[in-house]
Design goal:
The complex is a heterodimer of chains A (about 375) and B (about 170). Chain A is α+β, with helices and mostly antiparallel strands and about 375 residues long. In chain A, about 45% of the residues lie in helices and about 15% in strands. Chain A contains 12 helices and 10 strands. Chain A has helices at about 5-10, 45-60, 80-85, 95, 135-150, 180-185, 190-200, 230-275, 285-300, 305-315, 320-325, 330-350, and strands spanning about 25-35, 70-75, 105, 110-115, 120-130, 155, 160, 175-180, 200-205, 220-225. In chain A, β6 and β7 (about 160) form a beta hairpin. In chain A, α3 packs across α11 and α9 (about 285-300) runs antiparallel to α10 (about 305-315). Chain B has about 170 residues and is mainly α. Chain B is about 50% helix and about 10% strand. Chain B contains 7 helices and 2 strands. Classes of the chains: A alpha+beta (about 375), B mainly alpha (about 170).
């Protein structure tokens, strides 16, 4: 598979069939693994990096999950291609900026990706649309065991899997859910939630991970610690936290409808108007408007089937995807014009809002 | 809760407990009164727990592990201070003295209780056994203990077969 055909193939995230979940957009788990007896990527010499890249690429591409997938060195990717892979959460920003001797292998359905020589020798990642911690864990556990057949991982009986950074020691696992929490943002409750979640040993980040902002009211919630608990225990704890966040968001939605439905409908109606008629839209504004439309779908203002449109546009309105679709590189100002044009055409035939039906969507 | 907390820097009973959230990460530290004074913890505006923790455990003067270097990859505590990451898997043994106090505040526990790479570990124990047998064999030959040598060779063949089965 080539990078071009991968980009043109619908991904797990942009696939319309998968957008049934009202609050959790995506579940993601990653495992950090290293080869015994080799220096970590950040400390390895170029020749050592190449050797690890070769051994890992061979092992990863041989697994059944990666059959007919894409395997490519980071040097062989163009800037725009890297940006698209970051926007689809298939590679990290760190990998996209890395020097020689790094690579990535991506499965055909884009549900699984393995970064090689990022911070660790291997960063195995599994994505699933919706709230699917158990299924995602079972899939990535199988992938990890398959790699173990041919690779000797650095492991200590007391410290578990050894990683470049001690914050990932033990299970090497970071599990996260991408959550759409517009009502809590509108009600100014996110700061409180972040604090509470932190106290429970979980971390809240923006859409694109560390240091990114939460445009579109989308947040990633993941476990902070990796040592001292089994994978199942970590997932159970995370799952509990996520459930309670879902409940809070649903309550916040109910309260908004009860106390301030006029203001809420006004926001949704205006978002619809701007998406249908606007001519200049920044990425951030587009995300926030799409977020309101998605909230409208959850509340029954728009038909349920339209949720997949907003989920697809969350990704296609990003700068990389926009430029790739237009076959060229554009400055930010031009991109805002193109983005608005794109969204106008998407929303020209979008169902009109119906504010009489409103009820709380079920998750 | 009955156990009094110990100071993270000198292990006297801790009386100052601090929690700081930086970039959405929680850092916790417990200090005795003396260390708190010395580190200027009383002025919360101009100080970062993360810095304190890192510097406290890695400062060569106060660290018991000064002059340590990883024999496998040449990594030093100073490199860790600069990068925040280790050089190779063997660094975890070399810098145990620095790592252990750091781990306590970092994770839920200090001992792994999750998945174990069973197949890889079995493979490793077979390889270790093979290396030992090969050593025994050449020693036996050197000492002209031919019966022992024959037994070693048989065992080596058995282990090699087992290794072959473990690999696909």
């Amino acid at each position: 598979m080539t990078i071009g055909s991968l980009i043109d193939t619908p991904s797990e995230l942009t696939d319309s069939a998968s957008s049934k979940s009202a609050i959790v957009l995506m579940t993601r788990i990653r495992l950090a693994r290293n080869l015994a007896g080799h220096p970590f990527p950040g400390w390895a010499k170029p020749a050592q990096r190449e050797k690890v890249l070769e051994a890992c690429t061979e092992a990863v591409t041989a697994t059944t999950s990666m059959k007919r997938g894409l395997s490519v060195g980071v040097d062989d990717l163009g800037e725009l291609e890297k940006r698209i892979l970051v926007e689809r959460h298939l590679i990290s920003r760190e990998l996209s900026g890395s020097k020689q001797g790094s690579g990535v292998v991506i499965s055909k359905d884009q549900a699984c990706s393995v970064m090689i020589n990022e911070e660790d020798h291997l960063r195995i990642q599994m994505l699933r649309a919706g709230f699917q911690l158990k299924k995602t864990w079972s899939a990535i556990n199988d992938m990890d065991s398959a790699l173990e057949d041919s690779l000797d991982f650095a492991f200590s009986s007391t410290l578990g899997y050894l990683t470049a950074c001690p914050t990932n020691l033990g299970t090497g696992m970071r599990a996260s859910a991408m959550m759409h929490l517009p009502a809590m943002v509108i009600a100014n409750q996110m700061e409180k939630v972040v604090r509470a979640v932190n106290q429970l040993g979980m971390v809240v980040r923006g859409l694109f991970g560390e240091g990114s902002d939460a445009s579109g009211s989308i947040f990633q919630i993941s476990n902070q610690t990796t040592l001292g608990e089994s994978e199942e225990e970590i997932l159970k704890r995370l799952s509990g936290v996520l459930q309670s966040i879902i409940e809070h968001e649903l309550n916040a939605r109910a309260r908004l409808l009860e106390q301030d439905s006029g203001k809420l409908f006004d926001k949704i109606g205006r978002a619809y108007g701007i998406l249908q008629n606007g001519h200049v839209l920044s990425s951030n504004e587009a995300m926030n408007l799409l977020s309101l439309i998605r909230l409208g779908v959850d509340l029954g203002v728009f038909p349920d089937a339209k949720r997949s449109v907003t989920d697809r546009l969350f990704i296609e309105a990003q700068p990389g995807h926009l430029q790739y679709a237009q076959k060229g590189e554009f400055e930010a100002g031009q991109r805002d014009l193109l983005r608005a044009q794109r969204l106008r055409s998407e929303f020209a035939n979008f169902a009109r809002p119906d504010f009489t039906l409103s009820s709380i969507g079920n998750n | 809760m009955a156990n009094p907390l110990k100071c993270d820097l000198c292990s006297k009973p801790a009386t100052v407990h601090l929690t700081q959230i930086l970039d959405n990460k929680v850092h916790k530290v417990d200090l005795c009164e003396d260390c708190a004074q010395e580190k200027g913890v009383t002025d919360p505006s101009g100080f970062s727990l993360a810095d304190l923790l890192l510097k406290a455990s890695l400062n060569p003067e106060t660290s018991t592990a000064s002059g340590v270097r990883c024999e496998q990859c040449g990594f030093t505590p100073n490199d860790f201070k600069k990068q925040g990451r280790f050089g190779c898997p063997a660094c975890y043994d070399a810098f145990k003295g620095i790592l252990d106090p750091m781990l306590e505040g970092m994770h839920k526990g200090t001992v792994h209780s999750g998945k174990v790479p069973q197949k890889a570990l079995e493979r490793k124990s077979l390889y270790d056994r093979l290396t030992k047998l090969e050593g025994d064999l050449s020693e036996a030959i050197k000492a002209e203990r031919y019966e022992d040598a024959a037994r070693c060779r048989d065992e080596i063949n058995q282990v090699r077969q087992a290794v072959g089965q473990k690999q696909r």
